[in-house]
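User: My instructor asked us to take a sequence, write out its structure as tokens, and then describe one feature of it. I'm not sure where to start. Here is the sequence I was given:
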Amino acid sequence: MPTPHIAGTTANACCPPIVTAALSEGDAEIMAAMFKALSDPVRLRLLSRVASHPNGEACVCDIADVGVSQPTVSHHLKKLREAGLLTSERRGTWVYYRPAPGVLATLGEFLADTENAGKEEIAPAVRIS
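Assistant: Let's start with the prediction itself. The structure tokens for your sequence are:
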């Protein structure tokens, strides 16, 4: 299976919201790769640190304190890049990361419950405390 990339796409370019249409095989592979990459807590924290960093980009030197070794951080960042969630740019000795264009909107819209928009709130199956 080729490594899926959606960098540079617009929010609606990949997949319709999951509640509005069945996924094609290709779209399912793209989204599965993204969610697989995000299923690791360290990767999720790294993506969050990059996305919330001022100017929307972060030097690896500013986000590496996530409780694992530097080589492990590099491995996780590589997996996020391969899944199309991050882009990177080397500047001198440091690498700077930013969310791939449109990817956060794509994930949000994919999970949007448009069918129940404006209806009575449905209790979540999982509560995060």
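For the description part of your assignment, you could build on this observation: The longest strand covers residues 86-91. Try explaining in your own words what that tells you about the chain.
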